[in-house]
Specification:
Chains A, B: It comes from Zea mays (Maize). Two copies of one chain form a homodimer. The first copy, chain A, has 17 helices and no strands. Chain A is mainly α. Chain A folds into two domains: 158 residues; 231 residues, Up-down Bundle (Methane Monooxygenase Hydroxylase, Chain G, domain 1). At the A-B interface, helix 2, helix 3, helix 5, helix 7 and helix 8 of A face helix 2, helix 3, helix 5, helix 7 and helix 8 of B.
């Protein structure tokens, strides 16, 4: 059709030109429409990101503010004249040091300042040693120094403690040492340059810290505390959902898979990375709000690990509940599916959920664990024990239940193995893994032909 | 004793001096011993890190090599004279761009180069606009540009796709734009500067790429492939351990907790962060070894998610097995603890483990999933189904088992809730959370006293 239009316009000059212009116009309008659609979509997405967490907008504005503040150093002539091109280092520092949380900015800022200072001293020393060895040896010696120190510093980054807290400082150490060591200045000039550079970096770090701390501060410690509360809340929500949808008198088990509470544990399972980085940054922060200087941040990691274990049990439980709802069992086993079991299950989930809610309330107000929490935990444990004791006059049924659980979990694992096999199969297909059987058959055919 | 010695030395000059010297000497020797001990410990640790992964040593040497290569630019006078102080940018680029994997280096290098290029063009444009508005308006206008663009770019980093792939590029964009926009040069000079800076950065990136690709390359894609194989192997190891220690004829259940196979799933559970970063870097890599250009890297993430689900079921299973081993049940339920159940469990774990081993072999040789794997999966599924059918002539026992599992998982959750309560309690004690009850009592006392 496109080609037809073109030949037509070739045969019939004026009218064809009008037709072509009309088509061009249409195309342009279509393109504009598509672009407008994309732009509206993107704007909607950006709006959602901003609404979800308004502090993100504040952070963006803060970065702009800090950069504008630092760039004033360029415009104010007296400052610029005394520091010269080194002012650039203040801008550079602001861009790379400014992080979302106060702890992150402090960690990077202090790492940058101390890395620069230490590397500067060592580099000046190396320069003096090389300078004394004469004109010929100087570059060779400096190259050897750079090679040895940067290799050693890079290797130190593989030590887990250094990686966790001083990774950026080591990078800056390598950077500063190489820059100072290889620049072919005389030593006295070098010291003046190093001093100037260090002071500009200090100005950059100070600008960042003032902006992050005094303009809508985002504290990593507070974030970690809130994450712990949110995780506990999600666990409680799951247990409440299970209680109301599965174990209450008139529970129907209907349409279970669509219920949001059955998915709520997933974000808890994936919270480890966020938690670790927040905990790492929180350790750098000064006291703020209700958090004192030596707040036990590592304890949050232990709590998080327990929450994730709990969530992983919930994952198993939810898959069972869904299967149970899907399978139509004609008749219940009189002993195990009695009112007694249902009541015990209800008690267990209800009291556990209530205990967790009490814990979140205590965490939120930062008060000691209230007695109701312990009461609920005891009630839940009592229900679990009662179920075990009541069901098994002898211990035989208890053991039977235990074995049943193991057998069921194993058959669950079998299903998972099947899914894994399918997934590897998809991978093999997508990546075009070689098929050993067809190659063999081909060989067989070849031999047949030859023979 | 210290003070006694000092007064003694005060009273009796010479002998006391000798005594003091001897103590100093002792102290020095003690300090040297401690330092030697620490140094030996550190050396041992570094040696272990190097032995665990010799490529780490290679990476450290590569960084040193790339830096030394780039610093040659300083020593070779003709090069230095034509580029001037901009040579510094090559050194800076090498330090920050050099990553452990080829994909990481490529990602950072391309991000850096494109970020610099785009920002450079926009900054020159902004400079021209500001220049036309006159001497007074120029700095104000430039400051506004810096503020707006850096805020917008920082906000774009919160979009997940940008964060995952172009985070570093956006940082470099902000950096370059601010640097170029605020530097008070004339436009023609600016273009020469930008050109020079871009070419030094390109030289830095090229040096990094040559070193990472041609000297002992570490491919993120290969790492991801090996991680998937290792995860599958660990799952198989767990199932084999369960089979041999719990379901075999003469299985004793003895000393189970100390067995390493019961902990093997934990590293699978925590593999998400490594997997995500490797997958992200692998997408940047060119074809290498057996991996073609558009290898389906995302499929590894799906496989990894399944492996983690599997590992989380294993966590539940292992806690059950350990409890079962610890509890002394006097007698087994005749129906559930029979030889039949044990055999079925053995079949399920054995065949699943074998299927997983087949899968790892297929992944290692990059061949399609072999038929034995499917055969083993079918055998495992048959065993699971046989157990279910065989146990329940009617479906009542099957349902009973199902309910038993749910009740047991719930009572497991109760135990976890108890642990969480204890953990929060520890946190409250360590962080000195305020106790609402004592404050109330104090108030009560105060009122009593007042009244």
């Amino acid at each position: 059709m496109e080609i037809g239009g073109q030949t037509e316009s070739g045969a019939n000059g004026g009218g064809g030109g009008g037709f072509r212009a009309a088509r061009c116009w249409e195309l342009l309008r279509w393109a504009a429409g598509v672009l407008r659609g994309k732009a509206v979509g993107l704007a909607g997405r950006l709006g959602r990101i901003a609404r979800d967490e308004p502090r993100r907008v504040a952070h963006s504005v803060k970065v702009g503010l800090a950069l504008t503040l630092v760039s004033v150093l360029y415009y104010v002539r007296p400052l610029f004249n005394s520091w010269g091109a080194s002012t650039m280092w203040a801008v550079l520092t602001v861009v790379v040091v400014m992080e979302y949380t106060v702890g992150g900015t402090l960690c990077k800022g202090l790492n940058r300042a101390s890395g620069t200072l230490v590397a500067g001293f060592i580099a000046v020393g190396a320069h003096k040693v090389a300078y004394m060895c004469g004109d010929k040896a100087e570059p060779v010696l400096l190259a050897i120094f750079v090679f040895l120190l940067s290799s050693a510093a890079t290797f130190s980054r593989f030590i887990p403690e250094v990686k966790a807290r001083y990774d950026y400082g080591v990078t800056i150490f390598i950077l500063t040492f190489s820059l100072v060591a290889v620049s072919s200045y005389r030593v006295d000039e070098l010291i003046r340059l190093a001093h100037r550079r260090f002071s500009t970096i200090a100005v950059g770090v100070a600008t960042c810290l003032c902006t992050t701390i005094f303009v809508f501060p985002v504290w990593a410690g507070e974030g970690l505390h809130k994450l712990a509360i949110a995780n506990l809340n999600k666990l409680a929500e799951f247990l409440e959902g299970i209680e109301s949808e599965c174990f209450r008198e008139n529970a129907t088990f209907e349409n279970l898979e669509a219920k949001p509470f059955l998915q709520v544990y997933q974000s808890v399972l994936n919270s480890k990375a966020t938690e670790d980085s927040l905990c790492n940054f929180a350790k750098w922060e000064p006291c703020h709000g209700k958090f004192k200087l030596r707040h036990p941040w590592s304890q949050y990691q232990k709590l998080g690990a327990l929450c994730r274990e709990c969530a992983s049990s919930m994952e198993a439980l939810s898959s069972y509940v869904v299967t149970l709802a899907r399978t139509e069992y004609p008749e219940a086993h009189p002993e195990l599916c009695s009112q007694q079991v249902r009541t015990a299950c209800r008690q267990m989930s209800l009291h556990s959920a209530k205990a967790l809610r009490e814990l979140t309330a205590a965490m939120r107000t930062m008060t000691t664990v209230p007695s109701p929490a312990s009461v609920h935990v005891s009630a839940a444990i009592k229900a679990a024990k009662g179920l075990r004791d009541g069901l098994s006059e002898g211990a035989d049924l208890a053991r039977a239940m235990h074995v049943a659980v193991i057998a069921s979990l194993l058959s669950e694992l079998v299903t998972k193995t099947k899914q894994i096999t399918e997934s590897v199969d998809v991978l093999a297909r997508l990546a075009r893994f070689r098929n050993p059987e067809t190659t063999q058959t081909h060989k067989g055919v070849a031999i047949d032909v030859v023979s």
